[in-house]
């Protein structure tokens, strides 16, 4: 606050020490008339000095008030300048309307001795030309308040005119060092350099302080510097990381040794992309088919919070949301999963997580590897095929419902298959998840007719004129017999579709008979049998003409 007293008036009026606007603020119309007679005197010298609005100090410290004259105030040699005829510093000045002047504790007065109460503690650091600074050492609590600079300025061209001013500075004297102020950017971003400034409205060369940055593991602090405005400040240039978010940045004020320190802290708000993005699987990465699988996309931190999660399986987009849940189905859900977490900074992918869905053998079947039809004596291979994860560890084979011992491989091999190995075959593959059973497959072994023989249905004595019936019997045949070839005395005799051969008994048809049974695989001939036809008996009194006898032969 600046108080002016203009010649011709006894009352002071105020002029703000804030930045000037156009015109002469605070001047009434009547007083403005006076100013019109003083070209440039008031407005060009408003205010006549530059001082800080306020300062901070504490008991035991020193107070340094920086003060500089405006360009309008100078030495008397420069005729265009105003000159100072009187200068005084006051503690808590009060205007006395009766005396029309200020009263209070005088700290320093130009051309006067310093008061014994302040002797040795007050130093005027300036002069009457450029500098009007004041320093007070070993501050007491009672020296808190308003400090005022009283100036009496005259115009060398109008010596009868003198102007009086009072410039005030607010000084806060505390019991201990106050906490410094920290100014940090409102928004910090990871990996982008930033600067924080720690300052205090205090500077005194006889009582130096230091400002030290603590609580941050990295950064480049600049040396503590004095500012022209009477402030001490230290700047810290650092590149924030995501780990700095939520941590405290502290600036410590350290006076000379033996006095307590003070400090201030700010909590850093660092904007950063999602960190430590990964996929968490419950109950685990390896599960069984039918289990419920829950995948969560988690982060170690994100500021601002994650706004979007996206899921991918084998690089194909799958789902949006932080949680992915499904009932596991074999090969359909096995694969590589990863998620992406996005906030306003950027999108960050997680490492891929392999999900392994295990299941018991499925789609089990028995295959005939060696082809069909199967003929007796050939090599036959059956194979038990399936899908299984993990792979099948053992196989069990069955024939007609009965376990085939010592057969634990995927293939069941018959080097020379025999008809008694025909029948229904199935397998049971097993892995550590479980066992499954295949449908049965019929192994049909084909072979030529076996155990072919002839039987004679006639009585032991065949007489001429009887009907001879021969049966060609087959023990077994696969496929069935398709035809029968009959031979008489080793010569082809007749072909039949049926196994029975009939003919009338005549003398000419006596002989050795055999049959040959044929199927698609081959044929087999029976041993021969003999057919003997006896002559027909003559009437009583007539001689017997002949006798046909039957006897089987083994050939």
UniProtKB/TrEMBL annotation:
It is a single-pass type I membrane protein. Its main location: membrane. Residues 1-43 form the signal peptide. One of its GO terms (biological process) is negative regulation of B cell receptor signaling pathway. GO terms for cellular component: early endosome; external side of plasma membrane; extracellular exosome; recycling endosome. PROSITE patterns: IG_LIKE. It comes from the Eukaryota. It is found in: Cell membrane. Residues 177-267, 274-356, 361-442, 449-530 form the Ig-like domain. InterPro entries: CD80_C2-set, Ig-like_dom, Ig-like_dom_sf, Ig-like_fold, Ig_CD22, Ig_sub, Ig_sub2. SUPFAM superfamilies: Immunoglobulin. Keywords: Cell adhesion, Cell membrane, Disulfide bond, Glycoprotein, Immunoglobulin domain, Lectin, Membrane, Repeat, Signal. GO terms for molecular function: carbohydrate binding; CD4 receptor binding; protein phosphatase binding; sialic acid binding. Belongs to the immunoglobulin superfamily. SIGLEC (sialic acid binding Ig-like lectin) family. Predominantly monomer of isoform CD22-beta. Also found as heterodimer of isoform CD22-beta and a shorter isoform. Interacts with PTPN6/SHP-1, LYN, SYK, PIK3R1/PIK3R2 and PLCG1 upon phosphorylation. Interacts with GRB2, INPP5D and SHC1 upon phosphorylation. May form a complex with INPP5D/SHIP, GRB2 and SHC1. Most highly expressed siglec (sialic acid-binding immunoglobulin-like lectin) on B-cells that plays a role in various aspects of B-cell biology including differentiation, antigen presentation, and trafficking to bone marrow. Binds to alpha 2,6-linked sialic acid residues of surface molecules such as CD22 itself, CD45 and IgM in a cis configuration. Can also bind to ligands on other cells as an adhesion molecule in a trans configuration. This is B-cell receptor CD22. It comes from Mauremys mutica (yellowpond turtle).
């Amino acid at each position: 606050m600046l108080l002016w007293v203009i010649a011709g008036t006894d009352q002071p009026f105020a002029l703000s020490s804030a930045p000037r606007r156009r015109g002469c603020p605070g001047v009434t119309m009547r007083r403005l008339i006076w100013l019109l007679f003083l070209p440039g005197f008031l407005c060009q010298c408003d205010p006549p000095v530059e001082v800080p609005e306020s300062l901070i100090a504490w008991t035991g410290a020193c107070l340094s008030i920086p003060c500089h004259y405006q360009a309008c105030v100078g030495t008397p040699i420069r005729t265009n300048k105003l000159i100072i005829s009187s200068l005084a510093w006051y503690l808590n000045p009060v205007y006395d309307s009766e005396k029309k002047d200020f009263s209070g504790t005088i700290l320093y007065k130009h051309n006067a001795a310093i008061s014994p109460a302040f002797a040795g503690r007050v130093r005027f650091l300036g002069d009457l030309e450029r500098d009007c600074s004041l320093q007070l050492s070993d501050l007491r609590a009672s020296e808190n308040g308003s400090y005022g600079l009283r100036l009496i300025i005259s115009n060398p061209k109008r010596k009868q005119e003198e102007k009086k001013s009072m410039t005030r500075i607010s000084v806060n004297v505390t019991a201990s060092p106050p906490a410094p102020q920290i100014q940090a950017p409102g928004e910090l971003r990871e990996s982008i350099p930033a600067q924080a400034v720690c300052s205090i409205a205090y500077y005194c060369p006889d009582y130096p302080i230091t400002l030290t940055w603590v609580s941050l593991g990295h950064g480049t602090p600049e040396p503590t510097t004095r500012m022209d405005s009477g402030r001490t400040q230290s700047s810290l240039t650092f590149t924030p990381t995501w780990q700095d978010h939520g941590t405290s940045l502290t600036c410590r004020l350290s006076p000379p040794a033996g006095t307590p320190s003070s400090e201030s802290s700010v909590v850093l708000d660092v904007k950063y992309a999602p960190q430590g993005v990964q996929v968490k699987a419950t109950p685990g990465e390896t599960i069984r088919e039918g289990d419920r699988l829950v995948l969560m996309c988690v982060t170690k931190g994100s500021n601002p919070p994650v706004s979007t999660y996206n899921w991918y399986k084998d690089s194909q987009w799958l789902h949006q949301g932080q949680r992915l849940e499904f009932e596991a189905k074999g090969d359909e859900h096995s694969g590589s999963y990863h998620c992406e977490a996005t906030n306003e900074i950027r999108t960050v992918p997680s490492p891929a997580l392999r999900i392994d869905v295990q299941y018991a053998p499925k789609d089990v079947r028995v295959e005939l590897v060696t082809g069909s039809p199967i003929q007796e004596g050939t090599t036959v291979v059956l194979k038990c095929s399936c899908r299984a994860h993990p792979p099948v560890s053992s196989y069990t084979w069955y024939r007609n419902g009965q376990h085939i011992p010592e057969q634990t491989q995927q293939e069941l091999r018959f080097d020379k298959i025999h008809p008694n190995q025909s029948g229904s075959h199935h397998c049971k593959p097993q892995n550590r998840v479980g066992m499954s059973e295949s449908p049965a497959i019929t192994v049909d072994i084909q072979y030529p007719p076996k155990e072919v023989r002839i039987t004679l249905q006639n009585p032991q004595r065949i007489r001429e004129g009887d009907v001879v019936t021969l049966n060609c019997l087959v023990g077994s045949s696969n496929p069935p017999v398709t035809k029968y070839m009959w031979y008489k005395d080793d010569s082809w005799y007749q072909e039949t579709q049926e196994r029975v051969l009939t003919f009338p008994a005549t003398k000419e048809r006596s002989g050795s008979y055999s049959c040959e049974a044929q199927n698609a695989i081959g044929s087999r001939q029976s041993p021969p049998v003999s057919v003997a036809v006896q002559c027909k008996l003559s009437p009583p009194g007539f001689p017997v003409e002949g006798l046909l006898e039957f006897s089987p032969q083994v050939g």
